[in-house]
Write the structure tokens for this entry.
Amino acid sequence: MADRVMKVNAFTTFDLLDASVEGHGFEEEAFATLNVRTAREDPEEITLELELDNTQLENVPAHADRVTLSADEARTLATELQKAAERVDDTDQ
Amino acid sequence: MPSKVERWKDEAYGMEVRDHLLRFAEEGWDAIPEDEHDAWFERFKWWGLYHQRKGQESYFMMRIGTPMGRMTPEQLRTVGEVANEYATGPVDNPEFGEAYADFTTRQSIQLHWIKVEDIADIWEELESVGLSTMQACGDSWRNIVGSPVAGRDADELIDVWPIVQELHETFKGNDLYANLPRKWKVAMTGDRRGSGQGDINDLAFEPATKEIDGEEVEGFNVNVGGGLSRKEPRFARDIDVFCRPENAADVAAGMSALFRDYGDREDRFNARIKFLMDEWGPEKMRSVLQEEYVDYELPTAGEGLRDEYDYNAGRSDSHGDYVGVHDQSDGQNFVGLYVTVGRMSAEDVIDLADMAQEYGSEMIGLTQRQNLIVGDIADEDLDDFLDEDLLDEHSPDPHPFMRGSIACTGTEYCSLSIVETKNRMVRYGRWLRDNVPLPEGVDDFHIHLSGCTASCAQPQIADISLRGMKTRKDGDAVEAFDIGLGGGLGENPTFADWVKMRVPADEVPGYIANLLEAFEEERDSPEQSFRDFVAERDEDELAGLADGEETSYEDPYLGNTKMTWYPYAEDTSMDASPAPTDGTGEPLPSDD
């Protein structure tokens, strides 16, 4: 198998998440690593990167996906996540 | 635009940081402005100090660089005394006690729980015997690695010790090379073993011969751009340069100046010279070195000795290390002693130094396999030396599972690691020794355990590579390892093939047992090395060789040790940490 694409250390946002990948005619589940990154110096954007464990996948090659977000987009995402988290919390109660 | 670290370095770096450190030592931990911690901790690295991880604020790891791991017994004794006096924390380590020293894969020494208040006293003690923490870390010439027994080894082409001393003197504390874009790791090998492990260094001098003007000259071939970190491991590449011993300092100066001027200062992740090598290739590297940095005509590469290399090479016909009794060129012996995951109690360090002195040894060597060598043991003293009680623990003939174990610092102290490493590797080694029969003919088996992708335990160049991860087991997140197989150096260096992801840490010994059983059943013959066995198989076959399995092995560190303030404390929660503390170890009042 190929080595991991993303580095993983104590600063990685999540080193253990449940994930899945879906395509036409296939769907696979795997553990994943998810990380939020900004440049060290004068960051202008936020990078969100995701890698599913390639040992658990047959239909896609080893890879990581990245999306870049502006500060506003990151805040929109954070707000959405916050709201969603509250809904889950409400269900738990 | 230069990175933030570059800006901090512009404000203060190198030699001048010493005065600041002495001021902080005088005024105490609180004198380091809290909003400047990151900047100061970055600068302190140049003087060998790394701030320890979260939960251990105000404590530092101190690294002492010993060129080629070479020391005198007196220097070793001083290290033991410093460890005893200053390297003690609030809680003992259950395997290693109160005070200890770590011998690293780059032949340096690391001490933990160092308080800034003690730095002046520690430097005074170390420097009184010629030891230094200068440039042990940071963006500069790091400790030069190579064979500690150069000049004594009966199996060498060139005695590189005088050259390494020259390089050390030239490039330590030299303003011209004090601020490089990133770390600069140099290896110099003069023996036939390949013990410098030059392939994984930024700049490597490999022993070679070349016919020049009808005369056979001994010297070095020059390789550039090796390194293991992240997903981009590289072996140093041949730039087609032969270097006479008297030109080594010129070539080293040229290469490090080239790196200083052309290395990437905007993106630290892209700064090591291996990335410049990716971009330029060896031909351009050579031509820029020739045209801009060296004022004599560089000869093309000579005839190397790679086919003889056996150090960490996974060969079945020789041990890939210095453990055991070896001939010296002067008729005496050097004895390589096993040190459990490179960590030795301060008491043993002192006793060993005294013992070496009693036997007339003038040389102690630290090896890249985290072991220790005592040189200059006369034939007539050898039996007595081997009978010493201290060698029961630090054996010249350890079990192969113990002998081949290497581990990095891990969550005990390191900010990057995501798993516990050293104590776990000790437990793995013992369990394997007691429970797993070695396949016939296997005398060496290298297991390198690293806590994250930073690769400090050199996981990619071992029979079995373990790299820290997490997984879920019975609903709980537990520490785990990605597993690689079949890496090693030698004539044809190869990186491990990664074959398993997230094997729970308590199932790793079972995995190794199953793997060795499969190896013994499926290999061509008892002569086939494990590394050759792996090389013959494709990814799917390797992944299918074995699975993790629970056994009688028990793992006390399965939970999330990076979330503890110290994994072996009675109360491990962050809130229970006494840090930060003052110079006497008393907790300082918190701001909130």
User: Anything to note?
Assistant: The interface with chain B takes residues 1-12, 15-16, 31, 40-42, 53-56 of chain A (CB under 8 Å). DSSP finds one helix and four strands in chain A.
